Amino acid sequence: MANVPDFKPLTLEDRSIFNEFLAQTPPETSELTFTNLFIWRHCYDPLWTVCEDCIVTLFLDKGDARHAFQPIGSGDVHAALDFVTEYMMDRFGTAVISRVGPTFAGTFGNPEKLEIIEDRNNSDYVYLGEELINLPGNRFHKKKNLLNQFLKKHEFQYQEVGPELVVKILELQENWCEIKRCEEDAALLDEDRAVYEALKRMDMLQFRGGAIVIDGKVAAFSLGEMLNPDTAVIHIEKGDPSITGIYAAMNKLFCENAWSHAKFINREQDLGIEGLRKAKLSYNPHHIVTKYTLQPR
């Protein structure tokens, strides 16, 4: 922290100021929420400051790779972007602005000064909410089959996530990690920590969760929040992999019960993982929010 005295670590007390700045220019990318930044803070070491009436967020990524997000707010964005770019060049000898949304890239990504690189692996899949709820037509035939298999085989309850479910959700998360061997995968361990942080601070972070309960145990859960006025974002979704159709059921029920008012549902990126990309495409996205990386020429 000593080498970046102008920035400070992200804490829960910063939520109100972040939400104030985010409301000025509602985000279109899944990363740009306080909740997301906070629950992943142990992985990415975020630091932030206010510059030119914008929030500038810098990431040390456990002290290794350094990058920043696009400035947040309606201040002098050009000046804030210049500041963080020059700051990283001076401090680290390199500057990377990552996960940049298409509107920001098109408005502030000066191609004479910055190389603008498409980041397909981190681009977000966005769906029509009513389609995820109703699964209409032949395009969703396979999803309806999976859902019907689940409905025929299981007696279950859908419950909104509250303090009484946290322990049971963490039991499912622990079992999931044993099956997926999280201890052998740094990314899964980071996600496991993020799930714990999300549930531990759920009331203060003010996001919503839904769970499927079978025989008194949580078989699946999902956590999300509103990203902008017409789009909800699903940050975390987990299910018992031994139960056929559990993810199809969790997706439909969470959208139906928590996000029926949202026109769009953002289900984040595929990270370049082939199986995950296939799964996200199988839900017939309405559009993809293409993200970019900006680097000085």
Question: Structural class from helices and strands?
Answer: alpha+beta
CATH architecture of the largest domain: 3-Layer(aba) Sandwich
For the record, the CATH class of the largest domain is: Alpha Beta
Task: Name the overall outline.
Answer: globular
Beta strand %: 25-35%
Kindly state the percentage of residues in helix: 25-40%
Helix-strand topology string: EHHHEEEHEHEHHEHHHEEEHEHE
Major beta-sheet overview: 8 strands, mixed
- Gap from first CA to last CA: 28 Å
Number of strands: 12
Number of helices: 12
Total domain units: 2
Give me the CATH superfamily of the largest domain: Gcn5-related N-acetyltransferase (GNAT)
CATH topology of the largest domain: Aminopeptidase
The chain-level mean pLDDT equals: 94
List the uncertain runs: 1-5
Cα gyration radius (Å): 20 Å
Q: List the strand order in the largest sheet.
A: 5-12-6-11-10-9-8-7
Keywords:
297 residues, alpha+beta, Aminopeptidase, 2 domains, 8-stranded mixed sheet, 4-stranded antiparallel sheet, 12 helices, 39% helix, disordered N terminus
Folded structure, characterized:
By secondary structure, this protein is α+β, with helices and mostly antiparallel strands. The chain folds into two domains: 116 residues, Aminopeptidase (3-Layer(aba) Sandwich), CATH 3.40.630.30; 165 residues, Gcn5-related N-acetyltransferase (GNAT) (Aminopeptidase). The chain is built from twelve helices and twelve strands. α7 crosses α11. The protein is globular, with a radius of gyration of 20 Å.
